[in-house]
Specification:
Layout (H helix, E strand, L loop, with lengths): L1 H48 L3 E6 L10 E8 L4 E12 L2 E6 L8 E2 L3 E8 L6 E9 L4 E5 L2 E5 L5 H14 L5
Antiparallel strand pairs: 1-2, 2-6, 3-4, 3-7, 5-6, 7-8, 8-9
Length: about 180
């Protein structure tokens, strides 16, 4: 009987070790799956954000002669955005800066395919481009500058975002 009593605790200990190992492997697999799902979700959200288009056209404002250009931000119906705002940013007289457009924005227009948000602005200086900020329906904040779209943190302002995108445009992506 003494031999049987000695092997039972050893077997119990091995079973406990096997259970711990199996639990650890399941946890690691679940964490890896969650990381892949999060990366796929982020890639999908970033792809959706690149569907936002920004155009600038010279236009006469009948209400205010001060505004000479109209900035339009458009998005497909399938990608609703909120809190849209815009500014002008760029290199003017060898300084990189940003300034407000000068008008808070018009009521959105809707057609069969897209939603349009319009902003009046003063004549942009040479080297100055609109930078647009919006929050998507997932709660992510994006900036678009010179047709490049980037996700950013909640505390990023127009100038920081424009500088980051401008550096990326001029130097390309940084290898990891």
């Amino acid at each position: 009987m003494t031999g049987v009593q000695k092997t039972e605790p050893a077997m119990t200990r091995r079973r406990a070790q096997d259970r711990e190992r199996d639990d650890r492997l399941r946890r690691e697999a679940a964490e890896e799956r969650d990381q892949h799902e999060a990366a796929d979700r982020r890639a999908r959200e970033d792809y959706e954000a690149r569907q936002v288009l920004v155009t600038v056209e010279e236009r006469v404002n009948r209400d205010n002669n001060e505004f000479t250009h109209y900035v339009t931000v458009s998005t497909p119906h399938a990608y609703p955005i909120k809190q849209v705002d815009a500014a002008l940013a760029g290199w003017v007289r060898s300084n990189f800066g940003s300034r407000p457009l000068g008008h808070s924005g018009d009521e959105p227009r809707v057609d069969k395919h897209r939603i349009y948000y319009g902003f009046w602005t003063h004549t942009p200086q040479p080297g100055e481009y609109p930078i647009v900020r919006w929050v998507d329906w997932h709660g992510n904040r994006y900036y678009q500058y010179r047709h490049y779209t980037e996700r950013s943190g909640q505390n990023t302002d127009f100038l920081q975002a424009a500088q980051t995108i401008d550096v990326w445009i001029r130097t390309g992506p940084k290898p990891d």
